[in-house]
Amino acid sequence: MSSKAVVSKRWQGGENGLTIERLPAKESFKSKAYAALKEAITNMNIYGSSEPMLLDERDISERLGASRTPIREAVAMLEQEGLLRAVPRRGIMVVRRSKPEIIEMIEAWAALESMAARLATQRASDEAIAELRSLFKEFDLSRIERDRCDEYSTANIAFHQALIRLSGSSMLVAMTENLFFHVRAIRHRTIFEMDRAQRSAADHLEIISALEARDADRAERLVRDHTLRLARHVESHVDLD
Amino acid sequence: MSSKAVVSKRWQGGENGLTIERLPAKESFKSKAYAALKEAITNMNIYGSSEPMLLDERDISERLGASRTPIREAVAMLEQEGLLRAVPRRGIMVVRRSKPEIIEMIEAWAALESMAARLATQRASDEAIAELRSLFKEFDLSRIERDRCDEYSTANIAFHQALIRLSGSSMLVAMTENLFFHVRAIRHRTIFEMDRAQRSAADHLEIISALEARDADRAERLVRDHTLRLARHVESHVDLD
DNA sequence: TCCGGGAAATTGGCATACCAAATACCAACA
DNA sequence: TGTTGGTATTTGGTATGCCAATTTCCCGGA
Question: How far is B147 from chain A (nearest CA, A)?
């Protein structure tokens, strides 16, 4: 019985440092297909043409060298995630969000990130906040030289994601990741214009200050207003549909 | 060409009373399985036992009288939704959220609902707000007689959902629906105790007042604090795991 | 009594086949 | 020429079968 106990101890690896996670379990075609499709959708300029953008199951299964079954499962997942929509006998189409929908997403983003800011003032370490400030500096410096809209947009989203991570809430991180995915897709439509960049940078600085001052109410308000301002901007200056 | 116009007029049924909607498209086994499984999970007392709660593909397909394929697709969707988790050779298990996860969910809920309150002060009609007040009255009256915890919890969530709908944002509605699903699942663990009911009712009244006064900041703050208080309550008084 | 190892059964992933619905195509007729 | 009716083809949904990875079970040996 002593030997049994030892074996048990060895393999359950609870208190000792040995952490074995049930090895990677080489990913299935299902997950490969999921990743491939999501990647494809990401790199696709969804709002480029106004055509329906259809996908074909059999075509995809051939390209990926797999049968329809795992592809269909991946499509089902992406459908659940709101990226695809499969209508019978009409094909699988990439979902194009309407302008009101995009605005609602940005408002939800404002809600989640402002809460993240509040939580961050209470939970983030000084070091973590300092890192955010240094991230901002890098961003700002690199931005001065080049003024490509896409780069600004990417760095901008990176800043916001870093802030949200400061909250320590993986739920907030996950929920906003989904939102950013959709918002990113319309970056080409110049959501972020250069004249907004200056204002935006100033806002970011203020936000960092509020975090450093551990001022929950102020940080929350600044983040909320900053993002809601983007919503209003999109509402009046971006033309979808 | 005159005949074409007539035919066109007849079948497109624009201005005349003929409204044909592209008939219901009878739902597939996939969606039936999805609905059935979700229903089953809903009615399941997830946090009752501490055992893994496994499901079996072949068993489910037999019960539903369908093959494994549509069941697997439904499972893939529910997995994406975070309700199930399928690990190879170990079965499909209902995801049990840890206490920190539940708390993060409630915090996200607080974020989204407080934003909903803010938007509602700007967008909801007086009538809609009045309806919320009457909903509250019904709830309160019916609650006085019976003090079953579940009923209170249900009515409580109904109130919050009604408030969120006032924002007019279907995005906020959808995102919180997911959260409520998980929170509802642990209602049995007496998240909502009766001593909280009185305080809660008072809070709700205050919130309604703020909405009626169109006071965005106050409504937002009241909702946020109300829900964050629940998070703190769960943190210190509810025992999961 | 306990351990080890190998056979047998289970199970998840995937490929393939089939069917019915829906579309596209086409030819004949008005 | 345009419409109609019917046929061929496509396509999505589902069922089924196979295979390999595991797990389970069981029996012989220590």
Answer: 33
Rounded distance between C-alpha atoms, residue B122 and residue B117, angstroms: 9
CA dihedral sign of residues A42, A98, B164, B211 = positive
Nucleotide nearest to A54 (CA to C1'): D11
CATH numbers and ranges of domains, chain A: 29-94 (1.10.10.10), 99-237 (1.20.120.530)
Query: DSSP character for B106?
Result: H
Q: Which nucleotides of D are covered by protein (CB under 7 A)?
A: 2-4, 11-17, 21-23
- Look at B115 and A105 and tell me if their CB atoms are within 8 Å: no
For strands A84-87 and A54-55, give the pairing: unpaired
Chain C nucleotides close to protein (CB under 7 A) are 2-3, 11-17, 21-23
What is the per-residue pLDDT across B59-93, written as a single tens digit (0 to 9) for each?
A: 999 999 999 999 999 999 999 999 999 988 888 99
DSSP string for residues in A119-176? HHHHH--HHHHHHHHHHHHHHHHHHHH---HHHHHHHHHHHHHHHHHHTT-HHHHHHH
Region A11-36: mean pLDDT is 66
Do the Cβ atoms of A111 and B172 come within 8 Å?
yes
d(CA A65, CA B94): 32
